[in-house]
C-alpha cells in the first residue's frame, strides 16, 4: 500500500496537552490517523506515548486541545465512551478479568443475551470466531484466564479487542509478551485488519516490527510530536536522532575521574535468571561506584532489583557481596549486616512509607534493631538518629511527629531514602527514585548518591530518565528483554548511545559497546 | 482438554461442597435413631434453609470482593417486620410479603449506596448499617411477639407430596428465580468481573457501580426472604441480637465452605447453599454420635479452618512475593 492511497484522517488530535502536577506529559501534541493505515508511534521513556494512548482510550481527560472523530469533536469521560465511539485499546497492563473464562472475557462488554440471560452458546461462537480471527485457535474458550500463560493472555486480549469490531485499534507494546510465532500470526491479522479499512495505532519499541508493519511513523519527544514520515524513509540512526534531544533537567555533581578496579567488587552478580523476565544477568558494582540501569521501562530492571533484594522466589545464579556468596531469602535477610543491602522502592506510597504514621516512626522502620535494646525501643537514641538523618537529607517537616503523608512528595521521597540510610547499608539499590518529584529535590538526591558512593557504598540506580544515567552514573547497563544489552562506561554514556541500545538497534551510532563485565 | 473437563474444573469448589454435604448427611441420616425418614429430613431442612438463604445473600456481596456484615440484622429486621405485617387476610398478607421484600432490598440499596458513592469500606459500612437495621428491629418488636399468616407458614414449612420438605422446594425456587438469572445476566457477569479485578472491569468499560449496587440490593432482598421464612417457622418475631450476629458469622463460614472466594470473583450461591447445609449438619452429626453439644463450636471451627487452608494453598506458588500483598 502506498501513501498516495491515504484518505482523509478519521481521527485527529490537535494541540492536546496534559500535565500531572508540575510534570508535563503532553505538550501541544498533534496526530492524524487515517483508515486503512498502520501508524506507528515512537519515542523514548517519558516522551508522552502512554499519556497519548490513555487520552484516546478515555482513561484520562486532556487539559487542553481537541480530539475529532470523523471531523466531529469528541470527549471521552470513561473507557466505555471511547469503546462506543469505535476506539479500542490493547493495553500493556492487561484488561482481562482473571477469574472469568476466555469466552466470558472476550464477550464481556456486550455479551449476547436471550431473555435477559447471557446466551452461552452464542457467546461461545463469538469467542471462537474472535480467537480464530486473532490466530489463537489453540486457546480453549472455557479456560480461565488466570490459568493461561502470559503469551496466551495477550492473544486473548487481542481477540477481545477484535470482538468489539473497532474502527480504530490501538496496540500498546502488544507484542512484548508474545513468542516469535505469535508475533508473525498477529502481524498477519493486523495487516488484514488494515486492508479491511481499520486505522491502527501501533506503539512499540521494536524497530524491526515497525519496519515490517507500519505505513507511517510519528516520533514523540518531550510530550510533542516532532516528526511524521512514511515508514522506511528514515534510517534507524535518523530515527534515534529524532528521539533524542531531551533538555537536561538538572545539574549533576562532578564525577570522579578514572577509578582502578579492585579484585573483589562489593557486589558481584553472575548469571542471574528468573522465570523469563531475567536472562543470565552478570555485572558488578565496586565500592564508590554509581552504576545505572537503563533501557526502556519494563525490560526487567525492576525484577533485577527485586531479585537481588530477596523478594522473588526461584531466582538462579550467583550473587557475591564482598567476595562472599549470598542468597538473601527475604528483604529482612538482605538488609542484615552480613549483606547490608537497601532497596529504595519505586512506589513510595505503597512500598516505602506508612503514610498515616509519623516521620520519626517511618525513619526508624528499617533500623529498628539499631534503635532498640533487648527488643525495647530506646526513644532517646531513636530521636537522635532520626534528627541526624533529617539534617543529613534536609528533610523539611514541622516536627518528627507529624504524619509522613502530610509532607510534600519530594520530602516523602527523602524520608524513604533516609529510612534506609539509617540502616547503614553498603549496597544501595534504587528503583526510579526521582519519578514525580521536583527538580530541587532531585538535585539533592544526586548530590547525596555521589556522597554515599564516595563514603564507600556501591550504588545500583535504575532510572527511566536518561539524563540521570548520563549525569550521575559511572557506568550504565542498558537492559533489553531481561538481559544486559550493552554496558556504557564514562564518556560513552550519551543519550544517543542510550536510546540506540535501549531500542536494541545495531546501527552505527558512533559508540563502541563496552564489554560485559 | 474437552469441554466437560473445563466445566468440571470451574465448578469444582461447588461440587466438592455438594459431595461433602451428601456424605455428611448420609452419615447423619443412617445413624439417626429414626433413620432416613421424612420427619428427619423436614426438621433438618427447616433449620438449614434459614442459613442457606442468608449465605446466599452473603454470596452476592462476596462475589464483588466485598463483605456484608449486616445480613444478620436484615434477617432479624425482616422477621420482626413480617410478624407485624404478614398477617390478616390472604390479600393483606401478600402485600405484607412484598413490603418485607422491599424493605430488605432497600436495606441492601443503602449499603450499596454508601459503599459506592461514599467509597467507605464494605466491612465498616455494613457493621454500622447492621446496627441501625437491628435498632429498627428493636423499635418494631421491643419484646418477642407478633403473628403470621398461618396458611402460608404451614404450607412453606410442611411437605409437598407428603415426602419432600416444602422449605427445600422454596429454597430451590429462590435460587432459580434470583440467583440463576442474576449470575447469567450481563450485570451478574460484571459483578464477578468487579470482584476479580476492578481495574480490568473498569478498563473493559463495564458498569462497575451498577454491578456492585445490584449485588448489595439482591443481598438485602435475599436476607429478607430468610427473615420471612424465620417468621413462618416461629410464627412470631423477635429482635434477637444473638440470632443476627450468629447468622452473619455463619453466613461467612457457609460461603467459604461452599467454595466462594473471599477475594471475590469466583464461586456460586449454589455452593454457598450447600456450605450452609454442611455447616448445619456438623451440629447434627455431633448429636447422633452422642457427643456433648459443647463440642459443636470447636468442631465447626476446625472444619472451617481446614476449608480455608485448602483455599489458600495456591499462595505457595507465587514467585514474586510482592504479589502476596496486592
How would the blueprint of this fold be written?
The complex is a heterodimer of chains A (517) and B (326).
Chain A (H helix, E strand, L loop, with lengths): L8 E12 L2 E12 L2 E6 L6 H8 L7 E6 L2 E3 L4 H6 L2 E4 L11 H5 L6 E2 L2 E2 L1 H14 L16 H14 L4 E5 L7 H16 L3 E5 L3 H7 L2 E6 L2 E7 L5 H8 L23 E8 L3 E8 L4 E5 L6 H8 L7 E6 L2 E3 L4 H4 L6 E4 L3 H5 L6 H6 L7 E2 L2 E2 L1 H14 L16 H13 L5 E5 L7 H16 L3 E5 L3 H7 L2 E6 L2 E7 L5 H8 L15
Chain B lengths: L2 H8 L1 H20 L6 H26 L7 H15 L4 H27 L5 H19 L9 H8 L1 E2 L3 E2 H18 L2 H11 L1 H6 L4 H27 L6 H17 L11 H20 L7 H17 L14
Antiparallel strand pairs in B: 1-2
Features:
heterodimer, A: 517 residues, alpha/beta, Rossmann fold, 3 domains, six-stranded mixed sheet, 17 helices, 31% helix, 25% strand, disordered C terminus, B: 326 residues, mainly alpha, ABC transporter involved in vitamin B12 uptake, BtuC, two-stranded antiparallel ribbon, 73% helix, globular
Overview of this protein structure:
The complex is a heterodimer of chains A (517) and B (326). With 517 residues, chain A is of the alpha/beta class. Chain A has 3 domains: 3-243, P-loop containing nucleotide triphosphate hydrolases (Rossmann fold), CATH 3.40.50; 248-340 and 425-517, P-loop containing nucleotide triphosphate hydrolases (Rossmann fold); 359-423, no CATH class. Helices cover 31% and strands 25% of the residues of chain A. Chain A is built from 17 helices and 24 strands. Chain A has a 6-stranded mixed beta sheet, with helices on both faces. In chain A, helix 4 (120-133) packs across helix 5. The radius of gyration of chain A is 25 Å and the shape is globular. Chain A starts with 8 loop residues before the first strand and ends in a 15-residue tail after the last helix. Residues 507-517 of chain A have low confidence and may be disordered. By secondary structure, chain B is mainly α. Chain B has one domain: ABC transporter involved in vitamin B12 uptake, BtuC (Orthogonal Bundle), CATH 1.10.3470. Helices cover 73% and strands 1% of the residues of chain B. Chain B contains 14 helices and 2 strands. Chain B has helices at residues 3-10, 12-31, 38-63, 71-85, 90-116, 122-140, 150-157, 166-183, 186-196, 198-203, 208-234, 241-257, 269-288, 296-312; strands at residues 159-160, 164-165. A two-stranded antiparallel ribbon of chain B has the order 1-2. In chain B, helix 5 (90-116) runs antiparallel to helix 6, helix 5 (90-116) packs antiparallel against helix 11 (208-234) and helix 12 (241-257) crosses helix 13 (269-288). In chain B, 49% of the residues are buried. The model of chain B has no long low-confidence stretch (mean pLDDT 89). The chains are: A alpha/beta (517), B mainly alpha (326). Chains A and B meet through helix 2 and strand 8 of A and helix 1, helix 9 and helix 10 of B. Chain B: This is Monosaccharide ABC transporter membrane protein (CUT2 family). Chain B: It comes from Roseiarcus fermentans. Chain B: InterPro entries: ABC_transp_permease.
Amino acid at each position: 500500500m502506498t501513501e498516495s492511497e491515504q484518505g482523509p484522517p478519521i481521527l485527529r488530535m490537535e494541540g492536546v496537552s496534559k500535565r500531572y502536577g508540575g510534570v508535563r506529559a503532553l505538550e501541544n501534541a498533534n496526530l492524524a490517523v487515517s483508515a486503512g493505515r498502520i501508524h506507528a508511534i515512537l519515542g523514548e521513556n517519558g516522551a508522552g506515548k502512554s499519556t497519548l494512548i490513555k487520552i484516546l482510550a478515555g482513561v484520562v481527560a486532556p487539559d487542553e486541545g481537541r480530539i475529532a472523530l470523523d471531523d466531529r469533536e469528541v470527549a471521552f469521560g470513561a473507557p466505555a465512551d471511547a469503546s462506543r465511539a469505535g476506539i479500542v485499546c490493547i493495553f500493556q497492563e492487561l484488561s482481562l478479568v482473571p477469574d472469568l473464562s476466555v469466552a466470558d472475557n472476550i464477550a464481556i462488554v456486550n455479551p449476547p443475551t436471550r431473555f435477559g440471560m447471557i446466551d452461552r452458546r452464542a457467546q461461545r461462537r463469538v469467542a471462537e470466531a474472535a480467537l480464530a480471527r486473532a490466530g489463537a485457535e489453540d486457546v480453549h474458550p472455557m479456560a480461565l484466564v488466570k490459568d493461561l500463560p502470559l503469551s496466551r493472555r495477550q492473544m486473548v486480549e487481542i481477540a477481545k479487542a477484535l470482538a468489539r469490531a473497532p474502527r480504530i485499534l490501538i496496540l500498546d507494546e502488544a507484542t512484548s509478551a508474545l513468542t516469535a510465532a505469535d508475533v508473525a500470526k498477529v502481524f498477519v491479522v493486523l495487516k488484514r485488519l488494515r486492508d479491511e479499512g481499520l486505522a491502527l495505532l501501533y506503539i512499540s519499541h521494536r524497530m524491526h516490527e515497525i519496519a515490517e508493519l507500519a505505513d507511517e511513523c510519528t516520533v514523540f519527544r518531550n510530550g510533542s510530536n516532532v516528526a511524521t514520515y512514511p515508514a522506511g524513509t528514515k534510517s534507524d540512526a535518523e530515527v534515534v536522532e529524532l528521539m533524542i534531544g531531551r533538555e537536561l533537567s538538572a545539574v549533576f555533581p562532578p564525577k570522579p575521574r578514572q577509578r582502578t578496579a579492585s579484585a573483589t567488587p562489593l557486589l558481584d552478580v553472575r548469571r542471574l535468571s528468573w522465570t523469563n523476565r531475567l536472562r543470565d544477568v552478570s555485572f558488578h558494582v565496586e565500592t564508590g561506584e554509581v552504576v545505572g540501569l537503563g533501557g526502556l521501562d519494563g525490560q526487567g530492571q525492576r525484577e533485577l532489583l527485586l531479585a537481588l533484594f530477596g523478594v522473588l522466589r526461584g531466582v538462579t545464579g550467583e550473587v557475591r557481596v564482598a567476595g562472599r556468596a549470598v542468597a538473601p531469602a527475604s528483604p529482612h535477610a538482605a538488609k542484615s549486616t552480613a549483606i547490608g543491602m537497601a532497596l529504595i522502592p519505586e512506589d513510595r506510597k505503597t512500598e516505602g512509607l506508612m503514610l498515616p504514621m509519623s516521620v520519626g516512626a517511618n525513619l526508624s522502620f528499617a533500623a529498628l534493631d539499631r534503635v532498640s535494646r533487648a527488643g525495647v525501643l530506646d526513644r532517646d537514641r531513636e530521636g537522635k538518629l532520626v534528627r541526624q538523618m533529617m539534617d543529613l537529607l534536609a528533610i523539611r517537616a514541622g516536627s518528627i511527629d507529624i504524619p509522613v503523608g502530610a509532607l510534600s512528595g519530594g520530602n516523602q521521597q527523602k524520608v524513604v531514602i533516609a529510612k534506609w540510610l539509617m540502616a547503614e547499608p553498603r549496597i544501595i539499590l534504587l528503583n526510579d527514585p526521582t519519578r514525580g518529584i521536583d527538580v530541587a529535590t532531585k538535585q539533592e538526591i544526586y548530590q547525596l548518591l555521589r556522597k554515599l558512593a564516595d563514603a564507600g557504598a556501591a550504588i545500583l540506580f535504575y532510572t527511566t530518565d536518561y539524563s540521570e544515567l548520563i549525569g550521575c552514573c559511572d557506568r550504565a547497563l542498558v537492559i533489553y528483554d531481561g538481559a544486559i544489552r550493552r554496558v556504557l562506561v564514562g564518556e560513552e554514556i550519551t543519550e544517543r548511545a542510550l536510546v540506540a541500545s535501549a531500542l536494541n538497534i545495531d546501527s552505527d551510532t558512533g559508540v563502541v559497546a563496552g564489554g560485559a563485565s | 482438554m474437552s469441554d466437560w473437563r473445563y466445566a468440571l474444573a470451574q465448578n469444582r469448589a461447588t461440587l466438592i461442597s455438594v459431595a461433602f454435604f451428601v456424605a455428611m448427611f448420609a452419615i447423619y441420616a443412617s445413624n439417626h435413631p429414626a433413620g432416613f425418614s421424612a420427619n428427619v429430613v423436614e426438621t433438618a431442612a427447616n433449620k438449614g434453609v434459614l442459613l442457606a438463604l442468608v449465605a446466599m445473600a452473603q454470596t452476592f456481596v462476596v462475589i464483588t470482593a466485598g463483605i456484608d456484615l449486616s445480613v444478620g440484622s436484615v434477617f432479624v429486621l425482616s422477621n420482626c417486620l413480617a410478624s407485624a405485617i404478614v398477617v390478616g387476610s390472604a390479600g393483606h398478607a401478600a402485600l405484607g410479603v412484598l413490603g418485607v421484600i422491599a424493605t430488605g432490598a432497600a436495606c441492601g440499596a443503602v449499603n450499596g449506596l454508601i459503599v459506592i458513592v461514599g467509597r467507605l469500606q464494605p466491612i465498616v459500612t455494613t457493621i454500622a448499617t447492621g446496627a441501625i437495621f437491628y435498632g429498627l428491629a428493636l423499635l418494631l418488636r421491643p419484646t418477642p411477639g407478633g403473628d403470621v399468616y398461618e396458611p402460608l407458614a404451614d404450607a412453606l414449612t410442611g411437605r409437598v407430596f407428603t415426602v419432600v420438605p416444602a422449605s427445600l422446594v422454596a429454597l430451590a425456587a429462590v435460587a432459580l428465580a434470583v440467583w440463576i438469572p442474576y449470575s447469567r445476566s450481563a450485570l451478574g457477569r460484571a459483578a464477578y468481573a468487579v470482584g476479580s479485578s476492578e481495574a480490568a472491569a473498569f478498563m473493559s468499560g463495564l458498569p462497575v457501580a451498577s454491578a456492585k449496587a445490584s449485588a448489595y440490593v439482591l443481598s438485602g432482598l435475599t436476607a429478607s426472604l430468610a427473615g420471612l421464612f424465620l417468621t413462618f417457622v416461629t410464627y412470631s418475631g423477635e429482635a434477637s441480637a444473638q440470632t443476627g450476629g450468629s447468622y452473619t458469622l455463619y453466613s461467612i463460614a457457609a460461603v467459604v465452605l461452599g467454595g466462594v472466594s473471599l477475594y471475590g470473583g469466583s464461586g456460586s450461591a449454589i455452593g454457598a447453599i450447600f456450605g450452609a447445609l454442611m455447616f448445619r449438619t456438623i451440629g447434627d452429626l455431633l448429636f447422633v454420635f452422642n457427643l456433648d453439644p459443647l463440642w459443636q463450636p470447636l468442631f465447626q471451627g476446625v472444619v472451617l479452618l481446614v476449608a480455608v487452608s485448602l483455599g489458600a494453598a495456591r499462595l505457595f506458588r507465587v514467585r514474586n512475593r510482592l504479589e502476596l500483598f496486592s
